[in-house]
Amino acid sequence: MIKLSGSRFTDIMPENLASQAEVQAIAYAVGRQVEKLCAYSDAARTYAAIATMPEWLLDYMAVELRTPSYDENYSIKTKRALIEGSLLFYTQMGTPAAVNRIIETIFETGYIEEWYEYDGDPHHFRAYVGDGGEVGPGELEEFRRVLASVKRLSSWLDDIITISQMDPAALTITGAMGRGYMSTALPAAPMDYGMEAPIRAGGVFGTITQTAIPAAE
């Protein structure tokens, strides 16, 4: 098969015609125009060219398709995945499957658990997110924003549970000696003090004489 891009019509002509300089010149000029036409045709594609579309054009596509939970600060990989799943998302909008799809696309791992799976209140759910990465206030706020944009309005979030995985390793437990202390509990002092007796106060005077003796030579 001969592709239009990069081909010349001299490829299918007899050798005696294809070898002529005039024919080769015309074939080159026509071939350049065909290549431009192919480039314009590729640039005119939208949904079929998401995998090769430049990042600045992805932002316009997200606006055109009203891609849910889209953010221009996401990585280009996440942007492509969100835009590619836009139409499928709208066919599942308001369902747990749609929420799980968005969570997995943006956070790579995560899912929701319905109220009847953990004995919660009707129309409530809780969400799991993360896979050992750092989950701070910023990530949790972003997660809430994503959930609010894709969940049903009648559903209520109970908890956000982060998932952490640790590599297998030996756990060593040891003890150490330290300084101890002793505690003695004294009985409470009686409170039946008698205040009727007289109080006498006195003083003592005395003298202290100190003599400094020089050191012996």
Produce the secondary structure layout:
Layout: H1 15-18, H2 21-44, H3 55-65, H4 76-84, H5 86-91, H6 96-107, E1 110-114, E2 124-129, H7 137-150, E3 156-162
Parallel strand pairs: 2-3
Antiparallel strand pairs: 1-2
Pfam families: Tail_P2_I
Organism: Flavonifractor plautii
Protein name: Phage tail protein I
Low-confidence stretches: none
Supply the number of structural domains.
3
β-strand percent reads 5-15%
Helix content: 25-40%
Report on the biggest sheet: 3 strands, mixed
Annotated CATH architecture of the largest domain: 2-Layer Sandwich
Query: Do you know the CATH topology of the largest domain?
Result: GMP Synthetase, Chain A, domain 3
- The residue-averaged pLDDT reads 79
N-to-C series of helices and strands: HHHHHHEEHE
Overall geometry: elongated
Number of strands: 3
Distance between the termini: 122 Å
CATH class of the largest domain: Alpha Beta
* Discrete helix count: 7
Summarize the structure.
The protein is mainly alpha-helical.
